[in-house]
TrEMBL record:
Main location: membrane
GO cellular component, as recorded: plasma membrane
GO molecular function, one term: iron ion binding
Domain of life of the organism encoding this protein: Bacteria
ATP-binding in keyword set: no
Signal peptide interval: 1-20
Residue span(s) of domain Cytochrome c: 26-129, 171-279, 292-382
Native organism taxonomy: Bacteria, Pseudomonadati, Pseudomonadota, Alphaproteobacteria, Hyphomicrobiales
PROSITE patterns in the record: CYTC
Keyword Transmembrane helix attributed: no
Name this polypeptide is given: Alcohol dehydrogenase
Pfam hit, one: Cytochrom_C
Keywords tagged on the record: Cell membrane, Electron transport, Heme, Iron, Membrane, Metal-binding, Repeat, Respiratory chain, Signal, Transport
Organism field: Phreatobacter cathodiphilus
Amino acid sequence: MRSLFLATAALAALSTAGLAQTTSYSQVERGRYIAATGNCQGCHTVPGEAPYSGGRPMPTPFGTIHAPNITFAERSGIGRWTKDDFWRAVHQGIRRDGQRLYPAFPYPHFTKMPRQDVDAVYDYLAALPRVEKESPPNSLPFPLSWRRLMAGWNLLYFTPGVYQPDPARSPEWNRGAYLVEGPGHCGACHTDKNLVGADRRSRHLQGGELDNWAAPDIRAGRNGGIAHWSDAEIVEYLKTGRNAHTAAVSIMSEVIEYSTQLMTEADLKAMAVYLRSLDSPARSAATKPAESVMTAGRAIYADNCSACHRADGTGVPRFFGPLAGSNKVRDPNPTTVIRILLEGARSVPTQARPTPLSMPSYAWKLTDAQIAAVASYVRASWGNDAPPVTEDTVRSLRQTLKETAAH
């Protein structure tokens, strides 16, 4: 009996030792950090449900794609996937069953991740609780539901390959470039897309539109949308969700909650250094709103906005965002400005700034013409130079938001 006990104990020790070699605490913790740099939880989790259990709808111009369950559940998750399977999905956009993934999963960015980082994420996911939960089917019309079409898309728009450092640049710059262009996949939101959903490379990080939000220009070099931000202010925004210029709302709130606030200051600084090296083309002067629009917008602003944002648009830094110089306000695409006026906004609570700030909705109070007037006034005042907003644009977005809420 004693020899049987010793043999069983020895086998258990060998089994534990083997497990520790592949899922040691340091490896799992490393994977947790890398998963955070890619905001994996934000996309693969329905708010209020188990982390990484999938099912979250991802609206696209072509239909709705539901993020899959990436816990190690045997039936509905990736419990049967090997590390090679996981690597092929992340690096090449191909599932375990050989089917091609849609680029709503940002494998065109994740392909830049080295194998050891992808393996660490695999080990981290393997250490999490398994959750058996099926994701709803995607809602894509034929022929877009035919995944084989992605072979042609990949041929035209996807170049697989791990990030290669630029020897002419500093290690810090290269780290920032890797984070922004690779796991951080910033271009997925902040780059304009063509008719088939691929990045317009000539518009890289100069702003895009996603799910009825306009993601602004985030280049920090000459003429960039955040050229007036210091490196420290970029780091502060990514770490705390706000800085002297703005506060994060909507989709960016989730990026900060699940990703950037969890990253090291050194990595955030590297991202700032990289963004600082990116210039944007100079913008041509925008058409000025009619004087009647400016007069109406000025009066609406004085009655509804000036108490928080002040008469001169300077706001209260880190509390009520300045409108003067705001990259959201100055964006050629007015969608975010209109949407915030219609729906209001709430800043993200973070570990550093746990108390969120809110702006009320004005949809109940202001007509489409009034919202267009005040938006046009703000976008053309205090040094801002963005095109005026039309009543039809406001009306169209209001209707779209109503229809989206109804579903």
